[in-house]
Write a structure and sequence with these properties.
The protein is α/β, with parallel strands linked by helices. The protein contains twelve helices and ten strands. 43% of the residues lie in helices and 12% in strands. The two termini are 28 Å apart.
Amino acid sequence: MDYNATTPLEPEVIQAMTEAMWEAWGNPSSPYSAGRKAKDIINAARESLAKMIGGKPQDIIFTSGGTESNNLVIHSVVKHFHANQTSKGHTGGHHSPVKGAKPHFITSSVEHDSIRLPLEHLVEEQVAEVTFVPVSKVSGQAAVDDILAAVRPTTCLVTIMLANNETGIVMPVPEISQRMKALNQERVAAGLPPILVHTDAAQALGKQRVDVEDLGVDFLTIVGHKFYGPRIGALYVRGLGEFTPLYPMLFGGGQERNFRPGTENTPMIAGLGKAAELVTQNCEAYEAHMRDVRDYLEERLEAEFGQKRIHLNSQFPGTQRLPNTCNFSIRGPRLQGRVVLAQCRVLIASVGAACHSDHGDQPSPVLLSYGIPFDVARNALRLSVGRSTTRAEVDLVVQDLKQAVAQLEDQA
């Protein structure tokens, strides 16, 4: 029950990748048949990804994964900010209110490390300034008004995840985009740079409908291994190169229209395209199944341990969350999440993000940001169900947790 960390490949995805390895081994830039076959597979995958998120194929760039996509957005926006400063400086026109200043970013206090760390690095290098907006203790979301309040003349990007990987809380991205769009009309009139909006949709894809038109974002990060695809990713850029800037981090053979050069990984891209196709066809069924199993899990936990003993860390009244994610704590002095998991015989889960697994017994900084008390956060477990998780498996898991807790309390 750790499907937020990663997912297995669907059989159809493995088949698409295997066929590409056998039949489309040619270089996609080569003119002969094996190369053309590879190119056709890549183009078909691009169309499948675009369809999954309601965008256009020409706005999709393939990357090595979510970390690269997120870094590409951040570094692009820094370069664009400076490029704009230079071009304004040469016009001989009015003085730019942000001339000579550093670009400013706004993000939330609960972002994935592939957003937080590059931004912190830019601050350390004195290249940029960043505001980390705390999430509301009431809604669990980054409040739109707080994001608006953080805007400066030099603000160039707002990056807010679509859904949190530890709690499943869904952020108000459509409203953020709408407010930024309205604000940008005033900013352009004042000679200020427009603010672009990025969302890391890694956790939301395959679990709920994701549509770039509804979200209104300029950039959206896609991560294959979170929706039963391979470990590569993609980046959606609205009106790529025309309405929204993108500056490459790599330079090479001109692939992906020079935005992300390097000979394309045809089999992985074929698998990503197939995984996207399956999401487009089945997303409502996936969502309904996962919600049913997750809700059953929470009912069983409360029934077995008692409502006073179980603290559901990701339930905030009126706030939407992913249909598959259950973050909870079992109250008790010796029931730290890691210790409970070590006693379990069948449960495979985590205490939070897989990339924070070396944090020892320290509670998740994300849960503390949400206002979960220290002792409760230290006992947290994150169970995330998948497409094939059954109620019978939930029953096994709850029994497993019961025996683990009983064993730990007997030792005391």
